[in-house]
Amino acid sequence: MKKIDQVVLKETLYVSAWVLIFSALTQAVFLLIGKWDYTVLFGNLLSASAAILNFFLMGISVQKAVTKEEKEAKNVLKISQLYRNILLLVVTVVGVVLKCFNTWSVIIPLFFPRIAIMLRPLFDKGRS
Q: What angle do CA 89, 92, 96 make, to 5 degrees?
């Protein structure tokens, strides 16, 4: 197995930090509205972990794809996306079906990496 590129690790760490921040905010909101219980925590842990793993696996796939020819690279990314979507679907279904997870706290964290990525340009402005 090839060594994991430092950019993949750095970006995964960045996304992980934001997922952690947003997860804490989610817990706080549930607490403030009086709907917090252990299922909120478990749902958030399940989904946030899956979201971070999804982002990391995407980074590994991109790292692998850049070393391939164009057609093979597209294939690598397509297959990666398929498997990662299946992973997220399974996590979501498990989180919704099992009563030890709060449905909303399973669904909401899946959007945290996307929000973190959208916030990235705000923090990189000073570095250019």
A: 140
Q: Examine residue 128 and state whether it is found in any structural domain, yes or no.
A: no
**Given this model, what pLDDT does residue 118 score?**
95
Give me the pLDDT at residue 124, please.
Answer: 78
Domain count, the chain: 1
Query: What percent of the chain is helix, strand and coil (3-state, nearest 5)?
Result: 85, 0, 15
Alpha carbons 86 and 119: distance in angstroms, whole number: 26
1 belongs to a structural domain? no
In a domain, 73, yes or no: yes
Q: Encoding tokens for residue 40?
A: 């909120």
What's the CA gap between 125 and 128, in Å, rounded? Answer: 6
Mean pLDDT by 10 residues, the chain (128 residues): 89 97 98 98 98 98 95 96 98 98 98 96 73
CA distance 92 to 87: 9
Angle between helices 38-65 and 70-97 (to 10 degrees): 170
Does 127 fall in a domain? Answer: no
Phi-psi domain of 36 (left: phi exceeds 0; alpha: psi -120 through 50; beta: other): beta
